[in-house]
Amino acid sequence: MSYRPKPAGKAAENFGVKLVRPHAGNLVAPFLVKGKQEVAQASIQHMEACICGNRPLRMPLQIPVDLQPLLKTKQAPGIWLKMPLREDDPSESCALIGKEKDRALMLKKLADIEGQVRSSESASPDIAPAHYGKAIGKGGARISYIREKYGVRVNVPKDRESPIVVSDLSVNVRGAIMKLEELVQQDVPQQHVVLPVEILPEDIGIAIGKGRCHASKVQEGFGVKLSTHSREHPELPLVVEGPLGAAEKAVASVQLQRRRREELKGTIPVCVEPGRIGKVIGKGGFRIRHVAQRHGVTIQLPERNKPGAQILVTGFKENARATVAELELMANLKLRPEHVLVPLHIRPEEHILVLGPEGSMAAWIERNYGVQFLWPRAENMPLLLVGLTEDVSRTEAAIMKRLSGRRAH
Asked: Which has fewest Cβ within 10 Å: 5, 9, 25, 405?
């Protein structure tokens, strides 16, 4: 048998046998064991077991790169977990290193490591890179707190673009992520920001509202400022300024209202005879411009010499229908070339407030404002004002002001 001389001699003494080399000076030739047969066989079995037990044993296994730092290198006396050393060339290929005599213990350790890997995970909190500083805390205090409290490993990328990674047992990772997100969210809403509102330039007026009525509602509801000018972002058409949390909610609200308005938009044709289209348009297009401005719609004129072409009105369906009704009335009524008409949308019981007993107030309005009232020809038709564009607009404003005061009482 082959064996190292010193350990072999000590083993021979323990068993009461002798080791002899059949060829003196030949270090390659095996030893011979000399003694009683049973004792010699027992000593040979013992020495062969020692030889096999000291042979190195390697058990390969796969461990995710982000979980490797969570595992101990020394698993037991004489048993080591070997993992890749180069950070610039990470690999999942690892191995448990020991000796053949420790095979049983190594198998147990291998099962333990695989169990730890299965019960561990790596996950990233929902924190934007812009808020990594709040996640880290002053001098790394917040990250240190999370590591100590939950016993996890937290990796913050140097490039501040990749996600933060939290690694450990699944239950610890989940708890650490929830706490870290909570702490950041407590700080972030207080940060003053300027956020853009994704909106088309032609929709800005609608978002702001007449007399800033919509902007005022947003400011009162969310405690932010909605404006069309910003020093920080002069290129943006519409921005919201204020604490981050409130600003994000305000932006979402404005965009939701815009989407709802988009759903309410439509295109409606104006049903007039081809020979009356010019009457609807007016000289130089003044009638359609007047109606379009009143209702905030777009009016598309028909192509010349195209059979069946129509005037199309696009906008919020309610406004588009009102526009179409006015244009159709102007096409069918006998108006002076320079006149327009405006329907007065007032309740029948309010006619007396506008016109007075037996029309006395109507005569005064017609004299002083230079307009004319047209009485409804049917129950579903409104009271109409006819006159020059400026005179009609001025008269309508005065009448609605008078009615609003009465309605308030």
From this structure: 25
| Cα 322 from Cα 351, distance rounded (Å) | 20
- Long-range own/partner contacts, residues 114-120 (CB < 8 A, 24 or more apart): 114/61, 116/70, 116/71, 116/169, 117/63, 117/64, 117/67, 119/169, 119/170, 120/67, 120/70, 120/167, 120/168, 120/169, 120/170, 120/173
b (16+ CB within 10 A) / e for 175-207:
bbbebbeebbeeebeeeebbbebebeeebeebb
With the C-alpha atoms ordered 185, 186, 191, 194, is the resulting torsion angle positive or negative?
Answer: positive
Residue 300, C-beta contacts closer than 8 angstroms, at least 6 positions apart:
311, 312, 313, 314
Residue 391 has pLDDT above 90, yes or no: yes
**What tens digit of pLDDT does each residue of 233-271 get?**
677 788 888 887 788 888 888 887 777 777 778 899 998
pTM: 0.41
Residues in the chain: 409
- Strands 298-300 and 372-374, by their bridges, are unpaired
- Give DSSP secondary structure letters for 76-133: ETTEEEE----TTS--SEEEEEEEGGGHHHHHHHHHHHHHHHHHEEEE--S--GGGHH
Q: Check: CB of residue 59 under 8 Å from CB of residue 75.
A: no
Residue 233 three-state SS: coil
What tokens does 80 get?
Answer: 């080591």
- Structure tokens given for 373: 């009232």
Which residues 6+ apart lie within 8 Å of 250 measured at CB? 218, 221, 222, 224, 226, 240, 242
